[in-house]
Amino acid sequence: MTAPLVALTDQSLGWGGRLVLTGVTLQVAAGERIALLGRSGVGKSTLLAALHDRIAGRAALVPQDHGLVGSLSVFHNIWMGVLDDFGTPRNLRTLIWPARAERARVEHVLDIVGLSGLGRRPVSQLSGGQRQRVALGRALLRGGDVVLGDEPVTALDPAQGAALLGRLTTEFATMILTLHDVDQALRVATRIIGLRQGAVVIDAAAADLSETELLALYR
């Protein structure tokens, strides 16, 4: 039997000394596309962080706050996705004078996320939607076994969001995302985990769930 990528067994999870979720037991297998659903504050981000901390293997993360450095360029923020692939001398050189091949790698990603030609622009000059696409670009450049995203397309229009979620499904074998849009979750996920009142109340294949069942999480 293949070992899961990550597993939680009867875990209590929280942050800042505040308990958010109790009795969480679940496993994530390679190849799953999981959507975490529930009301704001129910613990989706807490659960995502716990899974990220326990992932075995290379993982790319798209945090809700984007995790960008405003004073640095788009290029350098995207290149952060692969900093741990290189030593300090290489990273210092790239900070000052990126090589042509490095710029080409990033420009390819910028094309994918719709930010072509903006590699030299400081992130502080970007809109919210552009910043979100930089965070997505950083994850795409990093690559890996799994991508985890905390509302990764919430600042994008529906068409852009759908296109980039589709791109994530082709670039990563496994995906775990918190989402706020039930229809979006049903389209992209193979499995949905629903949270309510501090616990996992739904854990089922997306094909077995209806929009009505999922909307009940928000009442």
Question: Helices and strands in order, then pairings?
Answer:
Elements: E1 6-15, E2 18-28, E3 33-37, H1 44-54, E4 59-62, H2 74-79, H3 88-96, H4 100-113, H5 128-142, E5 146-150, H6 158-171, E6 174-178, H7 182-188, E7 191-196, E8 199-205, H8 211-215
Parallel strand pairs: 3-6, 3-7, 4-5, 5-6
Antiparallel strand pairs: 1-2, 7-8
Helix pairs in contact: 4-5
Commentary on this structure:
The protein has 219 residues and is an alpha/beta fold. It folds into two domains: 1-58 and 144-219, P-loop containing nucleotide triphosphate hydrolases (Rossmann fold); 70-143, no CATH class. It has eight helices and eight strands. The chain has a six-stranded mixed β-sheet, sandwiched between helices. Strand 1 and strand 2 form a beta hairpin. 38% of the residues are buried. The model has no long low-confidence stretch (mean pLDDT 95). One of its GO terms (molecular function) is ATP binding.
The strand order across the widest sheet is 4-5-6-3-7-8
3D shape: globular
The mean pLDDT is: 95
Assess the beta-strand content as a share of residues.
15-25%
Going by CATH, the homologous superfamily of the largest domain would be: P-loop containing nucleotide triphosphate hydrolases
SS element count, helices: 8
CATH-defined architecture of the largest domain: 3-Layer(aba) Sandwich
Keywords: ATP-binding, Nucleotide-binding
Domain ABC transporter: 6-219
Protein name: ATP-binding cassette domain-containing protein
GO molecular function: ATP binding
